[in-house]
Q: What sequence folds into this?
């Protein structure tokens, strides 16, 4: 079993595939990467796209039916990539859903340019109610690149980090790749996911990313990331490796 916890495979909902045909081509790239289960996470509340739980469920059901018809061995589960907002906890009764509808993990997107001061309160509130927040692609956040101790602080306070496979294989430039490696070295990364959007331009690159991790780190890291993704699918609690602090306000690569 290989699980991808962040991607935009559902057609017509956001900036992912525009048509069913494109979604099926993207699904084939997932299968070629050895992926068996995909938790589809369309953008939600990011000022451009709103994809409440019901819309995601209907789209996932219809794509699963088509995958079965086409004999593509991939199973789609539901999720959302939700842009951080104040009333998240209240919305978990309706428009928001947990990854794989397991009742445990949530995928959260932070602004790229500024640090939202209320984030620590939201993290606490979610965890207090039994949810585990996963912050997507921290390598894209300028304020985290500038203040790496803040990455440590977020993880210390219970957030988990997900790095994009494309970042590790160098598709997003050397600076982001180095930052991602730095985060892994400090045990601040818990998941590698595709964030796939398009079968040609932004495909599933999980296989190459895991190969890269095996080469630059070790196969234990690959196992750790794969097992963590399975925990998300199953809604079971994972055991993070304790994070290592940075010297305060370090900006070294
Ligand atoms: Fe995404």
A:
């Amino acid at each position: 079993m290989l699980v991808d916890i962040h991607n935009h495979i559902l057609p017509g909902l956001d900036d992912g595939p525009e048509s069913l045909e494109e979604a099926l081509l993207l699904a084939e790239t997932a299968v070629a990467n050895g992926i068996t289960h995909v938790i589809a996470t369309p953008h939600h509340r990011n000022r451009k796209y709103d994809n409440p739980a019901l819309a995601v469920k209907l789209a996932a059901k219809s794509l699963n039916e088509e995958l079965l018809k086409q004999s593509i061995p991939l199973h789609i589960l539901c999720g959302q990539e939700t842009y951080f907002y104040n009333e998240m906890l209240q919305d978990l009764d309706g428009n928001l859903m947990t990854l794989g509808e397991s009742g445990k993990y949530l995928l959260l997107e932070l602004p790229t340019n500024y640090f939202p001061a209320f984030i620590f309160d939201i993290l606490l509130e979610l965890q207090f109610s039994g949810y585990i927040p996963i912050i997507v692609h921290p390598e894209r956040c300028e304020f985290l690149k500038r203040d790496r101790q803040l990455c440590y602080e977020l993880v210390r306070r219970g957030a988990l980090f997900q790095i994009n496979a494309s970042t590790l294989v160098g598709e997003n430039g050397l600076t982001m790749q180095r930052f991602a490696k730095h985060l892994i070295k400090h045990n601040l990364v818990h998941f590698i996911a595709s964030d796939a959007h398009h079968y040609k331009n932004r495909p599933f690159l999980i296989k190459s990313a895991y190969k890269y991790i095996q080469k630059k780190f070790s196969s234990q890291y690959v196992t750790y990331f794969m097992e963590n993704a399975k925990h998300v699918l199953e809604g079971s609690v994972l055991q993070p490796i304790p994070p290592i602090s940075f010297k305060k306000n370090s900006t070294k690569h």
In short: The two ends are 34 Å apart (CA to CA). The mean pLDDT is 95.
